[in-house]
Structures are given as structure tokens and as C-alpha cells.
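Archive transcription. Copying these from loose printouts into the bound notebook so they stop getting lost. Printout 1 of 2:
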Amino acid sequence: MSIPRWLCLLSAAALAAQEPKWPAPAEGDFVARDFRFARGEVLPELRLHYRTIGKPVRDERGHAQNAVLILHGTTGSGANFLRPEFAGELFARGGLLDAERWFLVLPDAIGHGGSSKPSDGLRMRFPPYDYDDMVNAQHRLLTEHLKVDHLALVLGTSMGGMHAWTWGVRFPEFMDALMPLACLPVEIAGRNRMLRKMAIDSIRGDPAWEGGEYRDQPVQGLTGAISVLLWMGSSPLLWQKEAPTRELAEAKLEQMVASYRQRLDANDVLYAFDASRTYDPSPHLAKIRARVVAINFADDQVNPPELGLLEREIKKVANGRAVVLPISERTRGHGSHTIAALWSEHLKELLRATATDRPVTNTPAQRIWDQREPHAARVWFRRVFEQRQPVTAAEIVVACDNHCCVFVNGTDVGGNDAWEQPTRIDVTKHLVSGDNVIAVAARDDGSAAALVLWLDWRAPHASGTLVTDADWLCCLEEQEGFATLRHDDRRWQRVTTLGEVQRGMNVWGYPPKGANADGQIRVLEVDLGRLLEQNPQHGRLVRVDDAESKRTKSQSDVRAIADAVRMYRVRNGKLPESLDVLARKDERGRSELEELPLDPYGTAFVLRVGARANEFEVVCLGPDGKEGTADDVSSKPRK
């Protein structure tokens, strides 16, 4: 019998829809020998089951660059994350934790899933583990077995979130970022501890428990503990929608209880609830060095927002931020922690922030300028380089004496107008795989001149820094398209290097303006009258001829305004319509001039535009205030 073609197509589509959008995990077991628990007991062999997705990437010294640890909740396992609303959102191609870029580690905690637990045979003779023991085992899995010595991120949900807090205080230098979800960094107390004690007492109080030596599950005691689990994970808004009648509510309850009974063991549940008894990272939160974004949910019954504990405790974390998401049609109470779409924007921000937290390297840069004319008023620079893979973050740090405009692949990305204070510019979206060009239009206001620049970039599997050095090219004349990749720079000259500048310093190698070498601000107050009383020889005044002084000032102002016109032309591709435009701030708050001055004679400067492209002249009308007379001062050399 032949099958209709349309039915084959529908079947294929249905199968494709059912296939996970993330790679299948590799599963394994790590056996920790002679594992010592916090109370002193030792197990000769402790098994820790785990799943990994993706491959580790290491630097030239073998250090892991892309590892992420993901930790599950009470009575769960790493398999809980392998669902569309979590793995489909994060692990799939293009996701924030794309398995092609990241090495994802999903362990089963002690007492859970495929790891060593009481139900394996020891029952109540199994060592009474706590959260410190569970984190220690995870640490050994990473360092001894998977050879991971650094984590880009620790993300945990519920109990896993508390493990993330524990990681932060126990191993503060081990990770770049922490994201604990649906938990609090305080001792388990109040209603939370009462509920856990109710679950423990329910199991222990069932005669069928028999001190943990039961053959069949103690149904009454286990059901009582399951009732606690159900209440902790309840979502009033969702459950009312799913079960709006008595019959539907009772049927849903029966279904959920049966599902839990099928997979839970009473001793394992008892141990899992009791493991939180020693948890309390609160006194140690200041030790955390990683960036932290802690996320809770307004409809979470376990961690209700009215307690205000997260907001209070996050203040102890140097780089911490607390987020409480409001109740919505999409939230699921405590279980919202596994609906990644609810909080993925916060994860995106966290990954982006940690990518630029620290310099990629401490490589010093070289001060550069034109080798033929060290005091040239205008110099154009270029540097072409190859970027072999897409970047996840890229930042330029630049300082120039006195002004510069920076371009990446032809796009104006910002600049620096204060040599005392380097400017930081995010250029992530402007770099491409393959060839790139950084171009700089620089202007000097007189005296010494120099440019210094760092480009730090990070990719999933690599990182690097490009700096100003002897490989840069320069030119003393503006050329159309100089900032684009395909510009012909074969006649450009190599720059002159003027000395080394350490990262964090300004263009002349000193701490940024307002700070000393320790970063502390110093204020110097001077009583000029008292100074002159003590040093009368310093109080002598020298009279300068007023006419000569004004002419010198007008010449200086004309040059500065002409340079501002040229900078405007570089930024905008055309000459300004009037000189007033030079003092108007653009959408980035930048302008070519802070303000447009009058000339020393109280008259406005004049802009003349020539017949040829880009030809212009800035003129001071002189003391007579008339255009075209002999006392005019022009930016254009006279023949």
C-alpha cells in the first residue's frame, strides 16, 4: 500500500518539530576518591553524574575560556534543563549559551539524579551532606576530571542558585559571572525552613518509613513531603487558569502527586531537604569578585518579594544587581527560573558586561605621530588588521593630544577631546570577520602631539589586543575615503613611535586627570594674594602691546576654528553651513567647539566657502570689522 505524499510530508514535519534544537549531551560519571564530607565522614568513592554540551576551548596555557556551570534545584537533575523553554532558548544555535560557542556542564548534585545518593544502598547510613559538600564535589568534577580551572558563568536555579552563591564565596576567583535564580543568599529560616522541616517530619513520622529501612516507599510520609514540594512550586495564577473547577483542581493535584511518587525516594527527599541546614552565605558576600545578577520572581512562594532580603543582601556584593520580575501571564511562580525567555535579556547584559570587565592583556601601547612633522596640526592614521572570527565584545580605549575622531570600517564611532582622560568606545557591532580598518583623524592645538589607542576584542574561543605601534600608517593630507577598508594607502608613511604608555594611563603616561597613581583624587587650593605677599617678585606684571596681543589671539583662534571645520567635514562628509554649527552637540553629545567665540575685536568670525570641493577659509575681520581689508586674518595662506 502506498502512502500519500502529503502524509509523508506531514509526518516528516512533525518529527522535525519534535527534534531538540540543541545538541545531544554527552553523559559521564566522575568518581571522587576518598571524598570527605563537612562533618568528617569519608566515602571511598563518590559518584557524580554529569552532562556536557559543546567543547572546551583553552588558551595557550591550557586554561578554559568558555566553560559554563549550570546547577539544578532540589530533587531535580541536570536533565531538567533539557527542555525547549530552557535549552531551546539558550543552547540552540544563536542562543546566548550556543553550544557551538560554549562548553556547558550540567552535573547531578550529590543525592540527586545519577549521582551517589542514599537510595543506592546506604540509606540513612549515607553521610548527611550539605550545600558545601555538594559544591566541593562539583569543584572536583571540574578541576580533576574535566580539567576546567575557570568558569565564564555559574548559573543555578532554586537550590542550584544557592549553590551559585556558595561558589561565589567559596571560590571567588574561579568565575567571571554568577546568575542565581529563585533563591536568597541568606540562612534558610522562617517559613522556608518550616516547610522543609514539615517535609522531613512527614517522612520520619510515617511508621512505614522504618528508620529508612523500608522495602516499599512510605506512601503517607512521602506524599506529605510531595505536598510541601507542590506548594513551594505553586503558581496561583497559572493553576487557577488550568484548573478553574473543583473537579479539574483535584484531578491536577492527583496527577502531580502521582508523577512525583513515581520518581522520588523518601530517603533521598529527606536528605535533599535537610542539606540546606548549614547554608548561609550572607556574612561572606563581600568576598565575591564575580559580577552577579540575582533574579527572583514576584509570584515565587518560596522567596516572596515582601521579605526584602535580596535587595538588602545584594548591597554587600561589589558588582551585584538584584532583579525581581513582576507577575505576568508568562511567569510560573518558583518554576519561572526555568522559563529562560523571562530573564534572558538580563543574562545577555551580564555576559556582555563580563566580556569587557578586564583588559584582554596588559599590553602597553606606543604614542604615535607623523615622523616628518612631529608638531603637525593635522594627521590622519590607519591600521588594517584581520579578525578571524566573530567577536562577542570589542572596545577601543583612546587618548589624543589634543583631539581625534575614530572610525571603524568607515563608521564614526567616537573620539577623544581631552588628552588627560582616555575615552572608552564600544565597537562590538562594527568589527567583522575578515579584514578591518581603524582610522583616526587627529588634531593638535600646538606644542607636543601624540595618539595612543588600544582595541580589546573577545570571541568565544579567543581574545586579543591591538595597540598603536610602528605598524600604523599616517598621512598629513586628508584623502577622501581614508577611513574605509579599500582606501589606497600605499603612499602613506610609517608613524613615529614616541614612547610606551601603560594601560590605564593618559597619552603622556600619567594617571588620568583628577587621579594620582593610586587613583585617588587630589585637590590643590592656592591663595594667590597670600602667595604674592610671600613672594613679591612674582607679582610683577608685564604689559604687552594690546594691538599685537589681539592680532596674535585672532591668528590662534582662526587656526583652531579652521581645524574644527576640517573635523566637522571628516565626521559629516561635508562642510558646515555656518560656523555656528560647530558648537552644536550631536546625538552623542559631541561638538567640534565647546562654544564659538567672537574675535578679539568683538566681531563674529566669517566662513567663506570656495568654488572647489572642500575649499574653505575662516576669516577674522580685524579691528576695522570690514571684510576684504588689509587687516583681515585668514586661515588660508596669502599669496
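Printout 2 of 2:
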Amino acid sequence: AENPNTPSAFLRLLAKDKDYWIRSRGAENSNAPEALLEQLAKDKDWFVRWTVAKNPNAPEALLRLLSENEDRRVRQGIASNSNTPENLLMLLSEDKDSWVRRYVAGNSNTPEALLTLLSEDEDRGVREGVAGNQNTPIESLITLAEDCNDTNLDVLWNIFSNPRAPNELVQKLLPVFLADLERNKDRDHCIERPNVPVEFQQQLLPIFAKDKSKKRRLYAAENIKTPSSSLALLARDKLKLIRNAVAKNPNTPEASLILLSEDNDSEVRQSLATNFNAPENLLMLLSKDKDSGVRQSVAANSNAPENLLMLLSEDKDSWVRESVANNSNTPEALLTLLSGDKERYVRRNVAGNQNTTEALLTLLSEDEDSFVRRGVADNSNCSLSILQALSIDEDTYVRNNVVSNPKTTKAMLESFVKDKRPTVRSSIAFNPKCSDELLIQLCHDKNLSIDAKISAIEKLNFPEDILALPHFNSILQTKAMPEKVLIRLGQHEDNEVRSAALSNPLHPSWIKSLIEAPKTNALFIKWANESQQSAQSALESDNVFFFEGKDANKAAGSKSELVRILAMSYGASVEPTRLAKSQKHNDWLVRMSIASNIGTPINALNKLTQDSHALVAKQAEMTIAKLSGKSDIELLVDEEVRQSSFYELSQDIAVALKRKHHQTVAIADPVWG
């Protein structure tokens, strides 16, 4: 209902849903047609009407009609709508409900003259909205700021972060906010507003650096605007979390970095080793650290000098050498040296390094380890001759990387169409150089991956002759298919193609059949055919309460609403006392389940024949008739009533499912049996 790509036909059906939440999602849909919004504007539920009022696509005439709604929440929705016209905002600015006026004050469409008027409103919340509105005149902001006391600090904070507020006014208010933050730590979020002046942050950060609050000290430790003196103080903090943040801060002074290089915690030293502004002498010191993680971080630092990388290339830990091989600063000579390393991961990183020469790539393309050759094939600096040699490599992943390489030519891509591995052939579809002719050729490959098929048909603009191929049936059921294509293929002469298109939830007929006649829905039928015979029998007899779990009595006490409802219908295996206790349950589905259970005590069934819900009463009568040996058919009025009962049950169970956040429940799901 809330998906902007949902067809209008779907939205019209969902607007009739019994669940108000579903109707409200349709009301907020950006593609909801005007006629549908007009229908939902008359909804009995205020939340649905409120959602219509907030929809930016709601026509002006409809907004004007809703502005007279007796429910203040609906009028609040109009007042907050970014497309509400000025004349309607003027009318709402006089509303007796202060929240309506608050939303008018915060609306980006509210004109200056009206904001000036609202700046004198008796309600503080309205004045807060005016103070934060970027349309508010400077004169009004100055007037609002004159009352600098504890009763309107929220108004002042909004002025403070308003980009229209003059600098002189902001400077005047600085002491007020500093004092407020000193008293109230719950105000910290205010300093993170996008328009808070830099000068204020600079004054605040030293205060935060000395605060007892861990959150405030961390904020200062991570902030690049924190003064050096404050970072020096935080570098001695007792918490590792704080020292770690200081070690990463690019503005931390060198003296503090040296102090942190001797920190007892290796994680702090590792963070320091990643700092781009760490001086060379400090990196040299850290390169001799006893912790391999620290040395590895130095090796990965893009500012590490060549002589230091040379030293680390001889490290006993292969992880350190791997980082050297991957470093963008590693010189050619050192890469050549590392290309002979005994560890495959080191040679693999050399093969992938953009500084590796063509001669060295050629050498590595003949490495005995396919993992190394994969790195060569993946390198965008790889020459065409090397790629051609690797295109016949025995390793699937090597050939796959050749297909994906931006230097691979169209002619080479064509040669891969006959590759023995489907993964390699599938990769061709994603290469930007793949021609339409080649894509069409690939589409006839039955073993192409689903993602490759989708990529191919999207690039070809969904050709009908390709989509009609038997191995594309599964693709027709994906979200990649546009509605117009599905409608066209839903009328295809081929039964399999037509069935696949109609089974797609995006097809207009799909959700209509699922709501109005689920037994005709293609996907529903598929699920039913895959279920056990007992489940199919239950479906044929419209037994919505079918249960086939191992222990119905235990399941009747389940925390799951759905499992509990289904289990309570399951014969004598459920304790009669449990059934009797639940006969007055406020959920009619629970009472219906008990009324359908032949194990329910007769006195409980007799009481249920007087139930306020007609279906529960009728079901209790049918169960009593069944127990007395009478045919239950005579108790059913007609087929239309029987079908409406089935669908009312189905819809309410669906609501129960939605409350438990189940997206889909198949007939073959264990909960049904």
C-alpha cells in the first residue's frame, strides 16, 4: 500500500481493507489518485483522514474540506502539509487548537506576515515553530529573543539554529545556551543541529572535554574542531574509548600522539597507527610494536614512507606483509620483492595493487596459485595480452574476473558465451560493453543466473519474445517486471507464460484475486498443490482453522496469536478446561476456534450459540449438530453466506498475521500443517 510503484488498481482495492493501517498506507502513497484520496478523506478512522491531510498530492479542494473536520488531528495534518496553500494556512492560524497553530508556524509555506502575527501567540509551542522557521523575518526573531529567561529556552534554541538569525543576535545568546547546557545534559542534541554556529561549537568543546559525562567527552574527542589543549587532556582519559577516539583524531597534537604510542592498550596504538597525520618518527616507533595488529595498521597507512614499508615487508607476520603489498605507496621495487613471497595472500595483494608493473603482472599471471591469478585478472591496469592469456585459464574465478575487467573487449566477451561455467557466462550480462546481440544470445542460455537474466531483459527493455521463453517463467514472477509488461504477458497465448505473469504480485489481477477469490489466485493454487493432502482437504471444505501440529494442547497456550487460534480448534486433544476458560475471549477468532472444536464442553458450546458475533453463534450450532449426528449442511443458509463466512475468517486471520509481522504465509507453512 505504501509502495510508490503500486498500481492504482491495487490501491483502490487496499482502500477497502478492514485494517485501518493498510488504508492509511494507501492514503499516504505519493501515487494515490485524487478519487481515491477523496474516498479515504471520508474514512471512519481519524488516522486515515489525517494521513490524507498530510499527503502532499492531496488537491486544494480536498484540503479545504478537511480543514473543517471536527477532529483536531486531521486539521493538524493539513497545517503540516508542505503543499497547503497560504490562504488555507491563514485560516488555520486562527484555529482554537494550539497544535494546529504550531504546525502552521513550522510550515515552510507560511508567509512572513503570518509568521510575524504568530510570533505573538500566547502558546509557547507556536512561538517555537516561528523561531525555527526559515521564512521568519529577522525583526520577529529579534523580538522573540528579547525574552531571555528559563521559560522560553526552546524558542531561543530554535532562533539559535535558524540560518536567518543575524550573527549579532547569535553572539548575544551564546552565554544563555552555555549556561543551559551546563545545567541540562539532555540539551546535547541541540548542538548537533545543522545550522548551529561554528563559534559556539568551538567555545563548547573545551567544556565538554572536562565534563564528567562520557558521552560529552567522546563527542569532544572525535570532533576535528576540538582545540589541541583539550585533545591533550583527553589523551590521558581513564577510558580506552576516549583515548581511542583521540588517537584517530587528525588534529591531535604530536606530543599527545607520542603519549598515546606508549598506551598500555594495543587497540589505542592500532588506532594511532591508522592516523593519517601521525608523523614518520612515530610510525617508525609503532612499526616495531610487539603487537602485530599495530604493525599491520602502520603497513596499511597510506602516509607510511617507503623506507618504513621496506622494513615491514620483512615482518615475520604475513598479515603485515599483506598490508604492505596492498599499500598504494608501496614502490615497484618492493612490490617485485613481495611478488616472490611464500604466502599466497601477499602475492594476491601485489597482483591487485595499481602500482604493479605490466612485467610483474605478466609474471604473476603464471603463478601456480589460482588465487594470485584472480588478482591479476581483477587489476584494471592489466594489459589486453595478459587478459587474453587468462581468458582460457582453468580456474573459473580467474575467467570470471577477466569478463568483469573494464579492459576486456567486445570480441573477448563473445568468446566467453561458450564458456563451460554458467557463472562466467552470467557475468557477461553485467559488463557495460556487452552488446544487445550478445544479450539476446545470452537470454537463450537456460543456465544463466536469475540476476543475469534480469539485467539482460532490463537492458533490452523487456522483449516479449525473450520473456516468453520457458526458462524465463521464474523471472516473470520477480519485482523487476513492470506492470505494463505483466499485463501484456498475462494475455499471452502460451498458458505457462500467462500463468507466470498472473502469479506476479505486481500484476493488477493478482492482489484482486487474493482479496476477492483466493482460490483462483495462481500463487495460492501453487502453494495448495504443494501442501499435504490433509491440508488440501481442509482447503476444499473451507476449514480455515486447520491445524496439524504435534501437540495441539501445548500449542493452545502458545505466545503466538495465530498458533493459539488454530490449535484451539483441534478436537479432543485440547484440554476442555482450557477451552472453557477462553469461551469469553475478547477476540472473536478465538471464540470461533473454540466453537468449531468438537472437544469443547457442551455447556460452553450452548453459551457460544448466543455469541454476539453471528458467525461464532452459527459455528457453535453446527458443532452441536455434528456431535448429535445431524448433517451440518442444513444449518448453512446458502453458498453465498458460506463463502462470505470463509472470507471474513480469512481476512481477520490475515490481520492477526500482519500484527505479528508475517509477510507471507504459504499453505505449506508448518503452522497450517
